[in-house]
Every structure is written in C-alpha cells, then in structure tokens.
Amino acid sequence: MGRFGKLIKLDSTIIKYYFIIMLYEGIDKLFGTVYVAHMGIRGLTS
After folding, report:
1. How many beta carbons lie within 10 A of that of residue 22, not counting itself?
2. Distance (Å, whole) CA 41 – CA 6
3. What's the CA gap between 23 and 34, in Å, rounded?
4. Residue 31 vs residues 2, 6, 12, 28, 37: alpha-carbon distances, Å
C-alpha cells in the first residue's frame, strides 16, 4: 500500500487516466455482452 501511495503522488494524472480507460473498457465489455445476450434471446424467441 505504501508503494502504491507513492505512485499515486508521483503520477496521479496517469493513474487517473488509466483508471478511466479501464473503467470504460469494462463498461464496453459489459454492454457488449449484454447486447449480444439480448440479441441472442430475441433471435431465439422470434
């Protein structure tokens, strides 16, 4: 935790951008999976 704290102090902007990118990628994957599953269910029911 101490090393990570030092890292945040040194590169807080880089950490912030990295976290935002990871968050967006996670949301993108989640929505992609939900969309594919939704379309698959629609395809089966119709």
Report:
1. 10
2. 48
3. 16
4. 35, 34, 28, 5, 10
Opening angle at CA 28, ends 40 and 18, nearest 5: 160
**Dist. CA 23–CA 17, nearest whole Å:** 10
Q: For 1-46, what is each residue's pLDDT tens digit?
A: 577 677 667 678 888 889 999 999 999 999 999 888 888 888 877 6
Residue 34 in tokens: 């939900």
| Sign of torsion over alpha carbons 15, 18, 22, 23 | positive
